């Protein structure tokens, strides 16, 4: 308990009285929640508003523009929600990876001895950090839809088409018992088939990555700067090479400082991805909104959104916590 | 510790006794001296505020007529602009007395969302707008295309139903509101934009400087009866809204206009005199005074006048009456008799 290495505060001595108080508080909170739920239920009933989660099994009836899972308008609401979660995870997962990459480069660039590199990186961080994300998303989307050519004059590179309708790519497809390649084809008014990266996805992905990488750059710079100059000099005195110094001395100490605030950035990226609807990307919130309006189950849909984001955030901080502990073991 | 427990107990008690029932709508309207009307944020012809903050549109005039009938003054309305996500909760929670918001009357909304639709004020259908120069002629040409649509409407479901029944593929691009979806359509992101046909014409007027470059395809894929809605549980208020709308339609049948309402009261047909409260007091049937309909008509005119001013020949939209003609002219407007 009193070992000097322990980082947690030691627990208070055990007491029956405290246990009773805590039990009573828990019961009170539980009762309150139960009461509120019951009250809401009966008030809804009194007002003639249908409630309950049974609607999740009914057919959703609306189409969703993109998604990896197979889904058609005849499928149930829960499948539509699942596709929404998948879309949210796909765009935030890729944006997290991209922002880590850009953020690391920028963070290193901010510490560079080259004035130009340092200046460019500083300008980037200051610009992207100080413009609201919503505006960046709208600007990204407006730019993409303005710059890309219309369907009738789509840019063609072999079997790949690029237009306002997005990037259409050939994709392998399991059909009639063997693999075939599904090539996009140009029709009079449309480009059909193949896999599609839509401007909506690209705008959201770019917006989230560019915005978060500016914050990550600062987190990484701060982490690297937190390692004292003496450490570097000591490593040099021991005859370690530059690569060895970075790997064995600087990174292990810097990661400890970097990981917790980076976790915050990632978690806020996932939550910010709910701005998707402003650029027409069908994420969880967008699909829940449509479901809400069609089924009339407002409280249920909002609860599902809340729970999903809560779970995703908890999952992320759990994972990052594990990574942090590993990084610390690596250091010692 | 004890004090905390007492506070928590009091909070709990106050929650138990939370009243769920609101007072009668008409009483509270009279008390506060205004009707609270939930309208569309901006849809030319239905409800839109001009540069002076003055609201115009057919949905707006319905609320004015109701204010005139209940409070004697068409100006006593508080306007609450609502987006598609807010509109049902706003009515359910009692934030507005009436939803006059180009909402489609559907069974789910009527039966399971705590509200009642009153009377249809506009018959619409879902249509598709395309750029004239695209060469798209009919819905068949829309196979495999991208279609812009806004979320939270009956539109998305109609769209899926129509294409599914014909085994045609399409990709929907869904935005939160009219503005974002029409902007995406105008940028060329989608080959078409779909919503109620009248709304399409109304939106393009505002969004594009050359509205003539866009056309609505001839096929309409759904029935969209637009009706004001009120909260459940107040039959008197429901009746008032329903009969004010019926009075406006009946006025057109009887040839009663904003200009001749006083003269018709004395010299009109028997049913005109009944409607206007000269012979009989129909007002007391719905908890109002005998002049209720006369005031509503004097405030906004009959249905035909309301239509012409906001959507028809007297407006930039210049829509034909179409389905919204009186039944005897081949339209669908048919008000139950006022007697």
Polypeptide structure, described:
The complex is a heterodimer of chains A (332) and B (339). Chain A is α+β, with helices and mostly antiparallel strands and 332 residues long. In chain A, strand 1 (155-157) and strand 2 form a beta hairpin. The relative contact order of chain A is 0.12. The longest helix of chain A is centred in the N-terminal third of the chain and has 34 residues, at 77-110. Chain A has a domain at 77-130 and 206-331: MetI-like fold. Chain A starts with 15 loop residues before the first helix and ends with a helix. A 4-stranded antiparallel sheet of chain A has the order 1-2-3-8. In chain A, strands 4-5 form a two-stranded antiparallel ribbon. Chain A has a two-stranded antiparallel sheet with strand order 6-7. Chain A is 63% helix and 8% strand. Chain B is α/β, with parallel strands linked by helices and 339 residues long. Chain B folds into 2 domains: 25-123 and 226-325, 3-Layer(aba) Sandwich (D-Maltodextrin-Binding Protein, domain 2); 126-222, D-Maltodextrin-Binding Protein, domain 2. Helices cover 38% and strands 16% of the residues of chain B. Chain B has helices at 2-16, 25-32, 58-71, 87-92, 107-112, 155-165, 178-186, 197-207, 235-254, 261-267, 270-275, 292-300, 303-310, and strands at 35-40, 48-49, 55-56, 77-82, 98-99, 115-117, 122-124, 126-131, 146-150, 171-175, 192-196, 214-216, 224-226, 229-231. The longest helix of chain B has 20 residues, at 235-254. Mean pLDDT of chain B is 89; it is low at 1-23.
């Amino acid at each position: 308990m009193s070992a000097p290495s322990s980082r947690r505060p030691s627990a208070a001595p055990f007491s029956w009285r405290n246990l009773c108080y805590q039990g009573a508080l828990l019961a009170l909170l539980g009762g309150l929640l139960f009461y509120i739920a019951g009250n809401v239920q009966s008030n809804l009933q009194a007002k003639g508003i249908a409630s309950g989660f049974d609607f999740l099994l009914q057919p959703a009836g609306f189409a969703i523009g993109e998604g990896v899972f197979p889904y058609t308008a005849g499928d149930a609401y829960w499948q539509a929600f699942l596709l929404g979660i998948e879309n949210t995870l796909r765009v935030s997962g890729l944006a997290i990876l991209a922002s880590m990459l850009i953020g690391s480069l920028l963070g290193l660039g901010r510490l560079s001895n080259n004035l130009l590199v340092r200046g460019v990186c500083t300008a980037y961080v200051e610009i992207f950090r100080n413009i609201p994300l919503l505006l960046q998303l709208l600007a990204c989307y407006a730019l993409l839809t303005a710059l890309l050519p219309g369907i009738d004059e789509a840019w063609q590179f072999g079997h790949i088409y690029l237009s306002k309708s997005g990037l259409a790519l050939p994709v392998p497809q399991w059909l009639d018992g063997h693999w075939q390649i599904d090539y996009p084809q140009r029709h009079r008014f449309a480009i059909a088939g193949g896999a599609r990266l839509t401007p909506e996805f690209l705008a959201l992905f770019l917006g989230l990555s560019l915005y978060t990488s500016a914050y990550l750059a600062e987190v990484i710079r701060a982490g690297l700067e937190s390692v004292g100059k003496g450490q570097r000099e000591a490593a040099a005195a021991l005859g370690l090479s530059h690569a060895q110094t970075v790997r064995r001395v600087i990174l292990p100490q810097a990661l400890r400082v970097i990981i917790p605030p980076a976790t915050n950035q990632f978690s806020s990226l996932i939550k910010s991805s709910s701005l998707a609807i402003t650029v027409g990307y069908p994420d969880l919130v967008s699909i829940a909104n449509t479901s809400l309006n069609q089924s009339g189950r407002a409280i249920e849909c909002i609860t599902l959104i809340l729970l999903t984001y809560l779970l995703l955030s908890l999952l992320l901080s759990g994972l990052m916590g594990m990574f942090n502990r590993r990084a610390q073991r690596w250091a010692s | 510790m004890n004090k905390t427990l007492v506070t928590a107990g009091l909070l709990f008690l106050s929650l138990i006794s939370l009243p769920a029932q609101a007072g009668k709508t008409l009483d509270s309207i009279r008390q506060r001296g205004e009707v609270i009307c939930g309208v569309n944020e901006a849809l030319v012809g239905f409800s839109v505020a001009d540069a002076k903050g003055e609201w115009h549109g057919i949905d707006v005039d319905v609320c004015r007529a109701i204010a005139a009938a209940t409070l004697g003054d068409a100006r006593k309305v508080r306007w609450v602009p609502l987006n598609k996500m807010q509109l049902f909760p706003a009515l359910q929670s009692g934030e507005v007395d009436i939803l006059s918001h180009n909402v489609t009357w559907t069974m789910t909304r009527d039966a399971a969302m705590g509200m009642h639709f009153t009377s249809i004020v506009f018959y619409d259908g879902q249509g598709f707008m395309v750029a004239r120069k695209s060469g798209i002629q009919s819905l068949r040409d829309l196979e495999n295309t991208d279609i812009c649509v806004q979320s939270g409407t009956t539109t998305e479901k109609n769209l899926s139903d129509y294409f599914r029944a014909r085994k045609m593929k399409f990709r929907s691009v869904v935005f939160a509101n009219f503005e974002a979806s029409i902007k995406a359509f105008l940028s060329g992101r989608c080959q078409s934009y779909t919503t109620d046909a009248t709304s399409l014409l109304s939106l393009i007027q505002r969004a594009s400087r050359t509205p003539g470059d866009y056309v609505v395809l001839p096929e309409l894929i759904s029935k969209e009866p637009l009706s004001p809605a009120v909260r459940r549980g107040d039959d008197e208020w429901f009746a008032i809204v329903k009969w004010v709308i019926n009075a406006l339609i009946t006025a057109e049948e009887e040839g009663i206009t904003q200009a001749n309402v006083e003269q018709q009261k004395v010299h009109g047909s028997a049913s005109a005199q009944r409607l206007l409260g000269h012979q009989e007091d129909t007002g007391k049937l719905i908890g109002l005074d005998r002049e209720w309909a006369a005031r509503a008509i004097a405030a906004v005119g009959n249905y035909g006048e309301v239509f012409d001013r906001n959507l028809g020949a007297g407006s930039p939209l210049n829509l034909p009456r179409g389905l919204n003609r009186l039944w005897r002219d081949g339209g669908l407007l048919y008000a139950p008799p006022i007697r």
